[in-house]
Structures are given as structure tokens and as C-alpha cells.
Specification:
This protein is of the alpha/beta class. Among the domains are: 81-102 and 209-231 and 243-404, Rossmann fold; 438-561, Rossmann fold (3-Layer(aba) Sandwich). The protein has helices at residues 38-49, 85-91, 110-123, 136-148, 162-170, 182-196, 207-228, 259-273, 293-299, 325-337, 346-360, 366-380, 403-406, 426-435, 451-464, 475-485, 501-510, 529-535, 550-561; strands at 5-8, 14-15, 32-35, 81-83, 96-100, 128-133, 151-157, 174-178, 199-200, 250-254, 282-288, 339-344, 390-394, 442-447, 467-472, 489-492, 519-523, 541-544. The termini are far apart.
Amino acid sequence: MTNFTLECLDCGHRAPSGGAGGKCARCGSEWQEARYEYATLGPSLSAMLANRQFNLWRYQELLPLRNPSNIVTLGEGGTPLLHGYNLSLMLGRPYLYIKDERQGPTSSFKDRQGTLAISAMKENGITEAVVSSTGNVAISYSAYCARAGIKLWAFLTSMVPPDKMREVALYGTQVVKVTGTYDRAKELAAEFARQRNLYFDRGARNIASVESMKTLAFETAEQLTRLLGAAPARRPNGSSAAAPWRAPDWYIQSVSGGLGPLGVAKGFWELKQMGLIDKMPKLGIIQVEGCAPMVNSFQAGLEVAEPVAVPRTHIATLSTGQPGRVYGFLRQHILKYGGAMESVSDQEAFRAMHVSAKMEGLAIEPAAAVAFAGLFKMVRAGMIAPDDVVVVNATGHTIPVEREVLGDDWAKVLSGEAVEATPQPQAEGLVAALERLDERVRRVAIIEDSPDAARLIRRILQARGNYTIDEANNGVAGLALVREHLPDLIMLDLMMPEMDGFQLLDHLRADETTRKIPVIVITAKELTREDRERLSGQVEGLLQKGSFMDEDLLSEITEALT
């Protein structure tokens, strides 16, 4: 049995309570947080966890459910923390990790909220409930309510994609489609619940919802410790010892109402209270430009968020125009511990979807892509240091791929009928049709001694064009390769064994058959003025390793090949 109390965030009053939460008995505030026996749990938590399954419920002593028999589970939590190998190389941030929340039971991080919120409803005898949602919460709650035998009413804005609405209905939830904004849907849902005397899920004011999200912090700290080891000792005054677990320097997530980072921040705070980590991470709060009340208000220095009355974005799951007090809580965290609030466009998010899928093999929903687009923006602005440990939440899977992401021309059509008209020309007609799939087929030579860098360049080329790719891992082999295949373009590293890039360039320019082949240099070398003078007029492009994105490379290639 878990022992916890609720502390009012307005008057500080503490009192025992059930998992569903309520109002403060002293001042009537709806804003309360669960508090646990941190001094007792801290020294014993690691030992308690040692033989438990790696899932959300391994932390049950720190979750607001008094009786484990009320747990409603579908196998949530315990999601992988993946090293973003290719993105790390592209961004020059070697400690970039992705919390893959796509692997929850309904493919989003809201399954954490679903399992604990519905378990708390069950513990409190609730048999019928109302929720408002932009999509993922309704899907998750519907799945867990079906398992718990709780009737659910879901109020969804008409902006929610039809596929998500149909999935909500599939679980037996009664869907109420609201023509209007998400904030209007919340108002109608609350009034409906009041009139029928039904339980209404209050989002960030729901104790269980906030508490569920802190398990992201717990898992991340455990996983980083396994990957990187315990936090190094920091002794500014010769006093602080190493903590047993490791916190990231940055935790980055896209937000709508902000519940996720609010719970994550509390999770790291609790770990610090128990002495398991030695610092609080900075928060990267990312919103979409068409609905960014937190970002706009933060950058304007406002203590209270200024609402966005009419969201203008295709990313419906992030269309909360009124974040309420959550903005203030997140703002306080950033002002105290560091962080940033940034916005990105729909198109930047859709672009990030392509990058994550083609570079890391991760198909993410547009809302998750907003976080990745924010990461790219922050790295380019120099906000994230090269040695920072960064965790990005991939909040959900893109099932199905929404139309706005790919546009109309996402597949090329090859007609089998056209080449079967007569027996004789079939082969020739088919070959011609296949060649027309990409009229700009090019041969590219990659001359690079680092396997990781070569893999990254190859993957960018494969993802963005129909290139024939040849590779060599040193200058001598590279020169022989170029002379044999005469590629249309050479991607060249400068620092290589046997023959460096400068010497290779001299050989290429001295040979009549190779002197006009365009060369793009990609190097980690800090170039001196003499180096740049030597390259001047010899290369068509110059990119620094660890500081270019795939569109930068493709832009250089396009210019070189035209």
C-alpha cells in the first residue's frame, strides 16, 4: 500500500486523499500535488527496483494508488531510450537520446496517463467518466476504460483526424464531436459532466495524470545510468559526491496543455529529493507557431499565459489555446533551473518527421516531430552545448501518415499496362518507365575514413534521391575509385590516411578526365586561413561535420549538380 498526502499548491495545506484527488479542504484550490516519504524511499528505492519488471508500475511506492489490486494495465511504460546515432552526427551532439513512447499500448505517451488515471477511477468506484481531448488521451483512456469496465464520454474537437475519432469509437467510447476549438470542447465536456453528475477528468489538475508522467523521468534516469554510468561527482567547493543515478542536461518535449513536462519536472524533483540525482534538467518546451500561447507569453515576459483564441495549425493534437496555470509552473521551472520555450512551424515539424524516419527509422506523429524541429532550432541557435546529454520525447507514432505530411506527390506511378501492349517492346518500355522514376539519377563517390560519417552521408543520399553511391575509406582508394567510375559528384573528407583530401584534390585537378568533377568537402578539421585559400576555387561546397542537417547537404548537392 502506498502512503502519500496531498499538498495544496496555493496554501500549503496537507491532507490524506484518494487517488482521484479533489479540492483543498482549507482554501478550496483544485491545484494539489502528491507527496511521499522521500527520506525513507531514497535509500531503499534502488534495492526495491532491482528484481522488478521494467515498466511503469515498478515505481508503485511513488504513485498515488493505495491498493495495487486496482491497477488497470496493458503493459505500459518501460519504453526504450534510443541513442540517436545519425542525428547525433548531423547535429554534433553525441549524447542525444530519444525516449520512444511510440511503443506504448496505444502508441503514445498518454498510455502512462491512461493506466494511472483509470486505475485511480477504479479505486474510487467511478463507473462513468467524461474526458475532453485532441486525440491521444481519448484513445488511451478508451482502451483502459474498456479494460476496467468504465463507460467513457469523449468530447473531441472537429479538428481531430477522423482516423483517431474512429479508433476512440472502436473501444466503445461515446464520441461527441465538437465543432470549434479544443478549449470549447473542454467547456462543453465539463458542463455535460456537471449536469449528469459524472466524473470529469481535469487534465493537469488531476493528481493521477501529473503523477503518471513523472515515470518518464524515473525511467530516463535509470536508463541514462545504464548507458552512461552514474552522474560524475561535482565538487565546486570540494563537498558534493556523485549521485547514483544520472539526469540529462536537457529534457525536450512538444506541448499542448503542458501536462507531460509538468509531470516530468516533478519526477526529477522527487529523484533529487531522494538523493538519486544531483541536478535538475533544463526543460525544452516546444509548441507549434499556430498555437503557441506558452512560447509567446514566455518570450514576452508574461507571468500569466495570454490565450490563443483561434489556433491555426494542421497539428490538431497541439491546439490548446488556453494552457492556464500549467504555463506558470513550467515558467517557474525554467527560470529556476534553466531551459527554453520555442515554437516551430507546421512545415518545420513535417520536415522533422521525414528526418527522424529517414535518419533514425522512427515514424513519429506530427506532434512529436514538433519536439525534434525544436531540437534542431535550439542546436543551431547554440542553446545546447556539444557535450550536453539531451533526451527528446518521441511522444507518439504516426498511424496513419496524415495527408499534410506527404502532400500529393508522395509516390510515383509505374503503369504495368503501358508496357504490355506488344510482346517485343516490353523490356525496352519497362526500362524506360523505370528510368523515368528519377530523371536525375546521379553517381556519387563518398571518400571518408570514418564509417559513421560515411554511413550518415550515404543515408542522407539514399533518403533524398536515387543516387548510385561508391565509397572509399582513404585517399589512395578514393582516387582509384574516381578514375574508374567518373562520378558526377565527390563527397570528400580532408583528414584521411595514406593520402589526405588536399593531396587528392591536387591529383583530381591535374587529371583532364577528373578535373571538372564537382567536390563537396565535409570535414571535422578546423580550417586555417591557408586551408581555405588552398580550397578556394577547388571545391563547390564546404560543410562542417556535426553542424549540418540533411537539407544543407542536399542544397549543396543541388547547386553542384546544376
